[in-house]
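Thread: Newbie trying to understand structure tokens

Hi all, I'm a second-year student working on a class project, and my supervisor (Dr. K.) asked me to get a predicted structure for one chain before our next meeting. I've only ever worked with sequences, so writing a 3D structure as a token string is new to me. If someone could post the tokens and maybe explain what I'm looking at, I'd be very grateful. Here's the chain:
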Amino acid sequence: MTSNPLAPEWLQAPSDANALHDGIWSSGAARTASGELAFAGVPASELAERYGTPLYVVDEQDARARAHRIRTAFEAAASDVGTTAKVYYAGKAFLCTEVARWMSEDGLHLDVASGGELAVALAASVDPALLGFHGNNKSIAEIDRAVQAGVGAIVIDSWIEIERIADAAARHGRVQAVRLRVNSGVHAHTHDYLATAREDQKFGIPLADVPAHVERIRSFESLRLLGLHSHIGSQIFNPSGFAEAAERLIAVHAELLDGGEIPELNLGGGFGIAYTVADEVAPIEEVTRGIAEAVARAAGARGIPVPVLAIEPGRSIIGPAGATLYEVGTIKDVVVALESEERTAPGSSSTAIRKYVSVDGGMSDNARPALYEADYSARIASRTSDADPALVRVAGKHCESGDLVVLAEYLPADIAPGDLLAVPATGAYCFSLSSNYNYLTRPPVVAVRDGEARVIVRGETEDDLLARDPGVNPR
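---
Reply by user tm_fold:
Sure, no problem. This is what the structure looks like when written as tokens:
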């Protein structure tokens, strides 16, 4: 099958536009004997009938297995270099009380980045000592609540937060453990908006300013410094950035030991996942081993003990466990004029067809393509087809030309209104970034396991939206 010249270079026309590629879909996603897509044994048509579309679907066993694998891999890697490890689940990827309990039950700590996320974690009865609290602009009220609750670690992101946290701790009669977020200057190979350690951005303290901040932290009896914290970005495939960040932070860490203990080092998260066939993801055992060995080398070169290590995966746990179901609405073939370099051969057609497939959701349930030009895959979920593959662009129903769900994919050419469409790897940052744009209601989230489905986040109704509007006339 010849690829459409409008397709990106990495996307080739497949021999089977029904196939589910390993690594992109959750481990419980499979075709039934009739060709329908099922998640952990629950057919897509049953999910759509019971809960409607759009619908977020999370494979519980897949998410738990990934959490367990990352934790055991990092603990083993840390043990091999003579230390211990902590794995924090980054709740910003996707958080609800059920997921918080899964992570806690599987031995992970939990990161929260707002008062709302803290409220969810506490409502899930997660031990506050296992929580880490992030944020570049934590309010005084949020800090006070975190200290009062007994949060295990608060990440300091600016000079002004030092005194605010110290005051809250003194007021509650506590010694609050803190980390200092450091802007390492390492430039992760990712989208600019996902790179969080570059010099010109809102997060962290420059390396040169760390000693003064640590001295200030140590001046308060109500604070205890756990160590430095770094986060170089998100959706990172090249592990060299973590090694470079470790080298830079250990150099500062070693200097700080002269003034007191600094037992831990947190290198953040950002491990990439596969969204398309072009994404090559290293095994997490390889990534965690590389991080641990890089820290050990840097510590050994300076003659200091290897600190307790911490990481903060989120997307790599929950992302592949999720998928979104949509119903296809309208379809149109758009004739696109080709630039000369897009033509495959001399004398070939000067135009090509791109099939626009519109679904009943869009940027309100997945903002990432509009924000980052993020790529996704898709498959017809309600059936299989022998039709030739056609290049499609899956569009949402919002009043924005940039409202695209899947920028480029090959699907059977006979895709039709009423078909169910599944987009994999939507477990992370889709629900979290969802909105009511155009007054669409946010979809429910269901967990699937062993042939059963249950709601873990209730979907909104139009009555929910109108209930917030005090101008609505009584009926």
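A couple of things are worth pointing out once you decode it. Residues 104 and 126 are 7 Å apart (CA to CA). The two ends are 58 Å apart (CA to CA). Feel free to ask follow-ups in this thread.
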